[in-house]
């Protein structure tokens, strides 16, 4: 193998490893997001949206405390378990603490002042947690590989490595990386808060399309993490676009299967029934059997439908404060009927395109067999 091929292979392996580490962090974060988002949304529903935090002792206030706790802790949890995926237990505490400290706006603001910058008072958000988790994991893993005397070895995972990792990374994260990441997060938040018209439509198109592209894979998760991170900033419109984009593929393909069963294998009809349930529950993976059977036609169909649904949602200002739940949390949206309408619109787009581009199932099988027979053998 040439040097260039070796480098490319190593780079691919590293990218795959980073992706897996990020997905580990996301998988541990999601329950906190779900609890926090739903409890906060219910708090707004049962109390005065404008004064729920001022009405201390009320039912809404108690629910809001749980919601805020979940959404506050989710960011350090993301950093902690990214580090855990890389370095195992020694990386957990440094990843958590570094991600946590980067969320403290006062700390970041003071750090910015030390290096001659201003801003960052909102903290570094989930972007900071990702950076903190990756660095904490890599540094902790490096310390794990050190050859130390036997009497020190038992102290390494619980004392030496966590403390050393924090000592090395705290100044770097605060004064070198933390402030720029916080400023980037602040700029992104400001842009999303000020989105209007065409800008919102473009964001909805992208987020919706990403949710459908690999149906639960890395691209899907990037859009999901991006939107759930914005919930902590009080920005709920992208979450609505993402949820709609994730619900459309199974529902749209099920509709296509119902209206044109001759274009699908007979056994897929039963899958369509479960697809409606899965899609309604915001489980995009319900569309995977269709994509696996005919990816070149199915994937563009679902991406188009989800992009349209997401764009329509953003254009109409639909919001969703809950990060999961699908149709079961629709009443938490600021515009429940429009939320459902966007799902219907996206599903119809997917169903229409899929039905038009897919040939009859029997014809496709015959064509594939003829193509296989026409291919010259190696003998």
Automatic annotation (TrEMBL):
It is a multi-pass membrane protein. The keyword DNA-binding does not apply. GO terms for biological process: phosphoenolpyruvate-dependent sugar phosphotransferase system. Pfam families: PTS_EIIC. The keyword Secreted does not apply. Residues 18-367 form the PTS EIIC type-2 domain. GO terms for cellular component: plasma membrane. The chain crosses the membrane at residues 22-47, 59-84, 123-143, 155-177, 197-215, 337-357. InterPro entries: Bacterial_PTS_Sugar_Transport (IPR050864), PTS_EIIC (IPR003352), PTS_EIIC_2 (IPR013014), PTS_IIC_fruc (IPR006327). Keywords: Cell membrane, Membrane, Phosphotransferase system, Sugar transport, Transmembrane, Transmembrane helix, Transport. This is PTS fructose transporter subunit IIC. It comes from the Archaea. Its main location: membrane. It is found in: Cell inner membrane. GO terms for molecular function: carbohydrate:proton symporter activity; protein-N(PI)-phosphohistidine-sugar phosphotransferase activity; protein-phosphocysteine-sugar phosphotransferase activity.
């Amino acid at each position: 193998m040439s040097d260039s091929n070796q480098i490319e292979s190593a780079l691919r392996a590293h990218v795959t490893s980073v992706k897996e580490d990020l997905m580990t962090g996301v998988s541990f974060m999601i329950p906190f997001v779900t609890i926090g988002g739903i409890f906060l949304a219910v708090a707004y529903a049962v109390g005065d949206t404008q004064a729920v935090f001022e009405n201390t002792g009320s039912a809404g206030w108690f629910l809001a405390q749980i919601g805020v706790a979940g959404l506050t802790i989710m960011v350090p949890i993301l950093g902690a378990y990214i580090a855990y995926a890389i370095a195992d237990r020694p990386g957990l505490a440094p990843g958590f603490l570094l991600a946590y400290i980067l969320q403290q706006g006062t700390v970041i603001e003071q750090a910015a002042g030390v290096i001659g910058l201003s801003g960052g008072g909102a903290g570094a958000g989930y972007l900071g947690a990702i950076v903190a988790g990756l660095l904490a994991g890599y540094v902790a893993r490096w310390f794990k590989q050190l050859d130390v005397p036997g009497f020190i070895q038992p102290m390494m995972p619980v004392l030496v490595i966590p403390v050393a990792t924090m000592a090395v990374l705290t100044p770097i994260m605060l004064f070198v990386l933390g402030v720029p990441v916080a400023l980037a997060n602040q700029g992104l938040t400001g842009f999303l808060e000020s989105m209007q018209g065409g800008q919102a439509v473009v964001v909805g198109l992208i987020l919706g399309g990403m949710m459908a592209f690999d149906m639960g894979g890395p691209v899907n998760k990037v859009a999901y993490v991006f939107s759930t991170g914005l919930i902590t900033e009080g920005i709920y419109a992208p979450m609505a676009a993402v949820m709609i984009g994730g619900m459309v593929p199974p529902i749209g393909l099920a509709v296509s299967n119902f209206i044109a069963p001759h274009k699908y294998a007979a056994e897929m009809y039963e899958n369509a029934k479960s697809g409606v349930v899965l899609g309604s529950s915001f489980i995009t993976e319900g569309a995977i059997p269709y994509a696996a059977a005919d990816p070149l036609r199915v994937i563009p169909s679902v991406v188009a439908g989800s992009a349209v649904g997401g764009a329509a949602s953003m254009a109409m200002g639909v919001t969703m404060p809950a990060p999961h739940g699908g149709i079961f949390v629709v009443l938490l949206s600021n515009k429940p009927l429009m939320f459902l309408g966007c799902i219907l619109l996206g599903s119809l787009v997917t169903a229409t395109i899929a039905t038009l581009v897919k040939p009859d199932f029997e014809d496709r099988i015959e064509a594939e067999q003829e193509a296989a027979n026409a291919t010259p053998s190696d003998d």
